[in-house]
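--- STAGE predict ---
source: upstream dedup step, 1 unique chain passed
mode: sequence only
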Amino acid sequence: MAVEEAGAGFGTDVLIRKVDSHLAALRAGLHGPELELAERLASCLRELVRQTTQSSAADRGQVRAAVHYFVLRRESRGRLLPVRSLAAAQRVVNKVVLQLGRPDLLVETRRDPLLEDGPRLRFETRPERRPHDCANR
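--- STAGE serialize ---
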């Protein structure tokens, strides 16, 4: 039994280290909303890894796949292999979250607070101009 617990802990540590090291690399190149999304994805993945240490092999496999999808961003090679976006990783992580029955861990895209209620634009209407009919005057 002690061997199984040690093995589970080791796998957990490896996955969390992968997430943390990838996030550190992303921090060097991302800013603003993209960095916030990466931070939220990493936080969600860490929690999933911790929560599934005693789960079935299938559940742990889904979490491991989501971690690898987040971490292994392939380099672009023309049109054939585009770089994976964080939005794609978000979709994968959210799918796993829902499959594991943890909707509380969904990673949502943050919106600009200024635009949450919709844009506040005012349009002024001008009265319709009609051509003058000088002949009738």
